From TrEMBL:
<dbReference type="GO" id="GO:0006508">
    <property type="term" value="P:proteolysis"/>
</dbReference>
<keyword id="KW-0732">Signal</keyword>
<keyword id="KW-0121">Carboxypeptidase</keyword>
<dbReference type="InterPro" id="IPR018202">
    <property type="entry name" value="Ser_caboxypep_ser_AS"/>
</dbReference>
<protein>
    <recommendedName>
        <fullName>Carboxypeptidase</fullName>
        <ecNumber>3.4.16.-</ecNumber>
    </recommendedName>
</protein>
<comment type="similarity">
    <text>Belongs to the peptidase S10 family.</text>
</comment>
<keyword id="KW-0645">Protease</keyword>
<keyword id="KW-0325">Glycoprotein</keyword>
<keyword id="KW-1015">Disulfide bond</keyword>
<dbReference type="InterPro" id="IPR033124">
    <property type="entry name" value="Ser_caboxypep_his_AS"/>
</dbReference>
<keyword id="KW-0964">Secreted</keyword>
<dbReference type="GO" id="GO:0005773">
    <property type="term" value="C:vacuole"/>
</dbReference>
<dbReference type="InterPro" id="IPR001563">
    <property type="entry name" value="Peptidase_S10"/>
</dbReference>
<keyword id="KW-0378">Hydrolase</keyword>
<dbReference type="InterPro" id="IPR029058">
    <property type="entry name" value="AB_hydrolase_fold"/>
</dbReference>
<dbReference type="GO" id="GO:0005576">
    <property type="term" value="C:extracellular region"/>
</dbReference>
<dbReference type="Pfam" id="PF00450">
    <property type="entry name" value="Peptidase_S10"/>
</dbReference>
């Protein structure tokens, strides 16, 4: 059973072609044509006139292609039958680097009849993708030609630009002719490109190429044995993605897959198995059930069952939701592009003026002549040939499968491999991508490897491109290293015992009138709107005789007159304070990745001061001298020039003459800043000299002392596990780092080894990714920022706006001039401070911002030392928020802050949550309700009212665990009105918040969860019974505090272990409502999601889900099925536990709560996910809810622990929980209240299979059969109405349904409140 996959569009696609062929086979009673066709016995129609590769060169590139393309492209035709005029079209993208050393890969798309140029090259793995304008191209970061030469063939004739002058050829096409023509193509193509003949050659493809590729490989191997040596093809391996293999296992696997992924009903699944698989296929009945699949599954994309549709090809009314780079409308753009005359001309395509437009799949191939029912005989021949898997050095039969494809799903592939009866060489195990995240699973058989790509659809590289290529870049510039080597090699450098001379030297003061106005920046190119501060830049001459002038950039604060003046200096020596300091660290703007536009830096130091960035000495950045000898300079001249600059600059900006002035900088500015400060203090004593009102200095990661610099650096390397014990001991024992003269050759050997062993890390921040790596660690700083800044500052338009490069400098702007640097670790700073021998006034303590430790501080006599946690060499780049807090403390002359904390209806009202967006039009309350005054047990709540609260019901939301927070998880991560942004301090509006349709009450229960607490520690050993009782007590008291809700319709909803909480609480409410003097709670219904309700089905459903979703192997699943009795804990045997451990190991480090979601800190920006939910949200929430001002606004008590998402001590000490609450649910179904059970279908922890098995146990009858429900023109999920029970799935959602699919969750929730099934129309 092959789904047609029309979610891709209304044109014919690969899945539609497969389905057509499937029906043809069904009516023919299986495969048709000679399934034992031979690869020999016919002659490849080679030709002497094979053409020249030079004629096929795309000399000027493709129309609209991006600049900077460094690889060659070729395209054209190869004749495969001259007598009939049959020619196949190809496109070759050579490898980006060293193509002669890279393998050649032939890529084939399936269908049959679909284009490898359109799908393979333009949509999936080629070097370019087409932009939405249909005219221009963009570079694909994971293009396969980064690692290989890629040859795309449109085959057979009639596909894409390939054609025949004999139209009857189109009626003769089938597997046999396709393989013969492809082989003939290769033989002739290799004659045209003879230098590729000896290169390693691989064939790869997907879909129906599961037949094409083995057939072609079989032909190549046999022809190699009997053919001319000139026609030998150096085949090394094949790889097939989501490929058909065998009709019966393909059909059975497809049926099982769409059922196990909750796309169809049990009844339809049974019908498919009975009538569409096995030896007795009932064609008419099968088609009836396939039609039911279409109706039940709805308008989804079977290529990627969790992907969005293109709005133009569905009834969707909203803009397509792009899955982190995947655009469902991309085929439209490609179709438009490849039909442009100028594109066809560049490709040397359509030279015969075909009477039809180029399209993805051909309508000409409607009578496929031969297609075997199975590839098993050919696979066995290939495997038996003796060619094995060995890093592709020998013949490699590799089968890969995207695991969210329903066209040729992973189950089909697994069933087919099982039928081959191969021996397992290396058992099922996970494999990781370059982010160290589980990218899929792999099992190696004797002669074949099976690999899954987690979260990928039918066109694997399209949905998960990073699984196939890795981007790599080096460390970029590494400022101070040259100076270090010069010192260690005892180069001639003038090291003064004192940093600057003590005598006063007269300075030049030039005229400055009118220059301030001339230096004013009207606007920087690409700057964002709403800039409310002034900017200036230009030159100050410091020596007119030699023409030496320093460039500055000055940014005033919004309230400039009340703020101090701060001079910022970067180090090097020789690095730019403008490019590094202003544009990459602490200035008001950051350069975007386009290198042309700017974005605002929310944590710019100009929020707290007027900041002056100076490029010093001459030769750095835009600063220059007309005398080239000036570029041989040092500390003394730099200090003197900087002082001269300041004196003249203050004449130009006289309003700052009396302003508080501070100097700060980093790295080698550990020399610049103290030396300049001392020169200022000395010259301030001269009565006729300009007085500079110096108030303080701050130097970061500063080089200030040679010995402690290097000793601290190598100690840092060792303590941070960058070098071995032996190397550290070698440096310690052999290196006297008191001066450069004391460094021996033995020492230098160890120092060199220490650098070499660390590999390709970025010394400025040892935990940061390199440029073009997809990893995001510690901070969100973009490691490629220096590239963007360099591009921006070399833009002539930018230089003109800055009044820079007025003399036409002979070199382009760059970050550093000449010398380079390495990072200066915290150990170096601490060792140097110890050398100062000053006393401690304020002992070492942690300082806080945003609710977490931001660093550490210690106050010495006349000196303050502060660390900034998680920051690299460029502190404001890596930790901008913390850097701004530190900088503000420095300006205020105070130590960084420690975190303060603070804690009936009006008292509970929240005035405003810190960082909440503007225009909030609803009321919020939070606080405590005591449920046991004697024990001091109090539960924390958060209420968010609806805009029209008086007309809306009240809903209590409970998260599970047991022990997890309904406030942090439920309100802040799932269904509340706000989501916490990645800065951990501000909030964004949740458009799909449930308080748009109800007043929602979030309760942290039991005591010990979140902000809830007890003064009696034994209360933290609790269970189901106490939790239900305390929650009921809470409700009764809360309703006294909010009496307007006493008679309001009341619902309870929750997820996970709330599958216990919710039914038990509902049962208690119904029982207590019968007591006449008791508060009546107007309970109307309950809804539980991905709910743990029954022990036995929990585990059987979970392991079945793992297997059906390609997470565990057949052997592990069989072992669990045969050895595990999940009736209770007591019935679980040792053998069962062993298989469970194997299942856990095989599952590896995926996020079980959404098996296709990326992990936090693995780079969400390159890891495609089914939803746009940020996997690090819990971290942001943790930060936000532990921020003192947030806790104060929430009226949080002084609990003896930090807020956390879950309290695992509560879970570990849980006392009572029944094995099943199904009897309680059955009782509630009979009570007359509404009972809904819902399930996100990508949750692996309490999966949809578990829920379905649990409902089966209830034994209730179906009233409304399974159907797809819709929202925004897309299938939102599936629903079935039972007697007194409704079951709903939410498509593409994990365990936390409103997090992953907020729009769909809100539609489901509204239907629940209305007491109606979710909508079945596609509007």
């Amino acid at each position: 059973m092959l789904c047609n996959g029309l979610g891709h569009g209304l044109r014919i696609d690969q899945a539609g072609s497969l389905r057509t062929l499937r029906h043809a086979k069904m009516h023919a009673g299986g495969g048709f044509g000679d399934e034992r066709w031979t690869a020999v016995g016919w002659d490849a129609k080679t030709t002497h006139n094979v053409g020249k590769m030079e004629d096929d060169l795309i000399e000027k590139g493709l129309p609209g292609q991006p600049s900077g393309v460094v690889f060659k492209q070729y395209a054209g035709y190869v004749n495969v039958d001259e007598s009939k005029g049959r020619s196949l079209f190809y496109y070759l993208a050579e490898a980006v680097h060293n193509p002669s050393f890279k393998p050649l890969i032939l890529w084939l798309n399936g269908g049959p009849g679909c284009s490898s140029l359109g799908f393979g090259a333009m949509v999936e793995i080629g070097p370019f993708g087409v932009k939405p304008d249909g005219k221009t191209l963009y570079s694909k970061p994971f293009a396969w030609n980064k690692v290989a030469n890629m040859l795309f063939l449109e085959s057979p004739a009639g596909v894409g630009f390939s054609y025949s002058n004999t139209t009857s050829d189109y009626k003769l096409l089938g597997d046999k002719m396709t393989a013969q023509d492809a082989y003939t193509f290769l033989v002739n193509w290799f004659q045209r490109y003879p230098h590729y003949r000896t290169m390693d050659f691989y064939i790869m493809g997907e879909s129906y190429s599961g037949f094409y590729i083995p057939e072609l490989a079989d032909m190549i191997i046999k022809r190699n044995m009997v053919g001319d040596t000139r026609t030998v093809v150096n085949l090394k391996g094949v790889m097939i993605g989501n490929g058909v293999m065998n009709d019966d296992t393909d059909s059975r696997g497809s049926a099982d897959y769409i059922w196990s992924h909750a796309l169809i009903s049990d009844e339809t699944h049974s019908g498919l198995i009975e009538h569409c698989t096995g030896s007795k296929i009932n064609g008419q009945k099968c088609q009836e059930f396939e039609a039911r699949v279409e109706a039940e599954a709805g308008n989804i994309d079977f290529y990627n069952i969790y992907g969005p549709n293109c709005p133009g090809h569905s009834n969707a009314t909203i803009k397509a939701n792009r899955l982190q780079g995947y655009d469902p409308c991309e085929e439209d753009y490609v179709y438009k592009y490849l039909n442009l005359p100028q594109v066809q001309e560049a490709l040397h395509a359509n030279r015969t003026k075909l009477p039809y437009p180029w399209d993805f799949c051909s309508y000409l191939l409607d009578d496929w002549k031969d297609s075997p029912s199975t590839m098993f005989p050919i696979y066995k021949r290939l495997i038996a040939s003796g060619l094995r898997i060995l890093l592709f050095r020998m013949f490699d039969c590799a089968v890969d499968s995207g695991d969210v494809d329903a066209v040729v799903p992973v189950t089909s592939t697994r069933y087919s491999i099982d039928a081959l009866n191969l021996t397992v060489i290396r058992p099922w195990q996970h494999w990781s991508d370059n982010n160290k995240e589980v990218a899929g699973y792999q099992v190696v058989y004797d002669g074949l490897t099976f690999t899954t790509i987690r979260g990928a659809g039918h066109e694997v590289p399209r949905f998960e491109p990073r699984a196939f290529t890795e981007c790599y870049d080096g460390m970029g510039f590494n400022p101070l290293e040259k100076l270090k080597r010069a010192r260690q090699s005892k180069a001639s450098v003038n090291y003064l015992t004192e940093d600057v001379r003590n005598e006063y030297l007269p300075i030049y003061i030039g005229p400055q009138d009118g220059l301030k106005e001339a230096d004013k920046i009207t606007i920087l190119p690409g700057q964002p709107n709403g800039v409310n501060f002034e900017q200036y830049s230009g030159y100050v001459t410091v020596d007119p005789e030699v023409g030496r002038a320093l460039f500055y950039y000055f940014v005033e604060s919004q309230n400039a007159s009340s703020k101090p003046l701060v001079l910022w200096l970067n180090g090097g020596p020789g690095c730019s304070s403008f490019g590094s300091g202003a544009l990459m660290e602490l200035g008001p703007f950051r350069v975007n990745s386009d290198g042309k536009t700017l974005s605002s830096n929310d944590y710019a130091w100009t929020n707290a001061a007027n900041v002056l960035f100076l490029e010093s000495p001459a030769g750095v950045g835009f600063s220059y001298s007309n005398k080239t000898l000036d570029y041989k300079t040092g500390d003394q001249q730099t200090a003197a020039d900087s002082y001269t600059f300041l004196v003249n600059w203050l004449e130009r900006f006289p309003e700052y003459k009396t302003r508080d002035f501070l100097i700060t900088g980093e790295s080698y500015a550990g020399h610049y800043v103290p030396q300049l400060a001392r020169l200022i203090l000395q010259n301030n004593k001269i009565t006729n000299q300009t007085t500079i009102n110096l108030q303080g200095i701050a130097i970061g990661n500063a080089e200030i002392d040679f010995e402690t610099e290097y000793r601290g650096m190598y100690d840092f390397f060792w303590t941070h596990a960058l070098i071995s014990d032996e190397l550290h001991q070698g440096v310690t024992s052999n290196c006297n780092l008191s001066s450069e003269e004391t460094i021996t050759e033995t020492c230098e050997t160890y120092l060199d080894q220490a650098y070499a062993v660390q590999g390709n890390i970025f010394y400025y921040d040892i935990y940061a990714p390199l440029c073009n790596s997809s990893i995001a660690l510690v901070s969100a700083f973009d490691p490629c920022s220096s590239d963007y800044v360099r591009s921006y500052l070399n833009n002539p338009e930018v230089q003109k706006s800055l009044h820079a490069n007025v003399t036409g400098l002979p070199n382009s702007w760059d970050f550093c001039s000449g010398d380079t640097d390495r990072r200066v670790p915290v150990t170096s700073s601490k060792y140097a401070i110890q050398k100062l021998g000053i006393s401690v006034k304020t002992p070492w303590y942690p300082w806080y911002t945003q609710g977490e430790v931001a660093g550490y501080a210690v106050g010495y006599q006349n000196l303050t030392f502060v660390t900034v946690r998680g920051a690299g060499h460029f502190v404001p780049s890596y930790q901008p928020a913390r850097a701004l807090v530190f900088f503000s403390s420095f300006l205020d002359g105070k130590l960084p802050p420690t975190s303060p904390q603070d804690g009936l209806k009006e008292a509970d009202k929240i005035t405003v949550l810190p960082g909440q967006p503007n225009a909030v039009n609803f009321d919020q309350y939070s606080g405590y309700v005591t449920v046991d005054p004697k024990a001091g047990r109090a539960l924390f709540y958060y209420l968010t009212e609806s805009q029209n609260s008086s007309s809306k019901p009240l809903v209590l939301w409970l998260n599970g665990g047991p022990g997890c927070s309904s406030f942090g998880n439920g309100a802040m991560m799932e269904l509340g009105p706000f989501r916490v942004k990645s800065d951990g301090r501000t909030l964004s509006q949740n458009t799909y918040a449930w308080n748009t349709v109800a007043n929602v009450l979030f309760l942290e229960s039991p005591a010990g969860v979140g902000f809830s607490y007890s003064n009696t520690t034994s209360d933290y050993i609790t269970g189901d019974t106490q939790t239900a009782a305390d929650t009921y007590t809470f409700l009764v008291n809360w309703l006294e505090r909010f009496p307007e809700y006493k008679t309001r319709d009341f619902f309870i909803s929750g997820e996970s272990y709330a599958g216990h909480y919710v039914p038990q609480l509902a049962q208690l409410i119904i029982e207590n409502n019968k007591i006449t003097n008791q508060t009546i709670i107007n309970l109307q219904g309950i809804a539980i999601g991905n709910a743990y309700v029954d022990y036995e089905t929990e585990y059987t459903g979970m392991y079945d889900y793992f297997w059906s979703h390609a997470i565990i192997s057949d052997e592990i699943h069989d072992g669990i099925t045969l050895n595990c009795n999940f009736t209770s804990d007591a019935t679980v045997s040792d053998a069962c536990e062993d298989y469970e451990r194997q299942a856990d190991a095989a599952r590896a480090s995926i996020f079980s709560y959404n098996i296709y979601a990326p992990l936090c800190s693995s780079s969400s920006n390159t890891t495609p996910s089914i939803s746009a939910f940020d996997p690090c949200s819990r971290d942001y929430i943790y930060s936000y809810l532990n921020t003192p001002e947030v806790q104060k606004s929430l009226h949080v008590a002084s609990v003896p622990h930090e807020w956390d998402s879950c309290n695992y001590d509560i879970l570990a000490n849980w006392k009572d929980k029944p094995l099943t609450v199904l009897p309680t649910i059955k009782e509630l179904m009979a009570s007359g209240i509404s009972v809904w059970i819902y399930s996100g279908d990508t949750d692996g922890r309490v999966p949809v299979t578990t829920t379905k098995y649990g409902i089966d146990k209830l034994g209730t009858s179906v009233q409304t059969p399974w159907y797809p429900w819709y929202t925004q023109g897309e299938v939102g999920g599936y629903a079935v109405g039972y007697q007194n029970l409704t079951f709903v799935t939410i498509r593409g959602a994990g365990h936390f349904v409103p997090s992953y699919q907020p729009a769909r969750a809100l539609v489901f929730f509204s239907s629940f409140l209305d007491g109606k099934l979710p909508p079945s129309d596609q509007k």
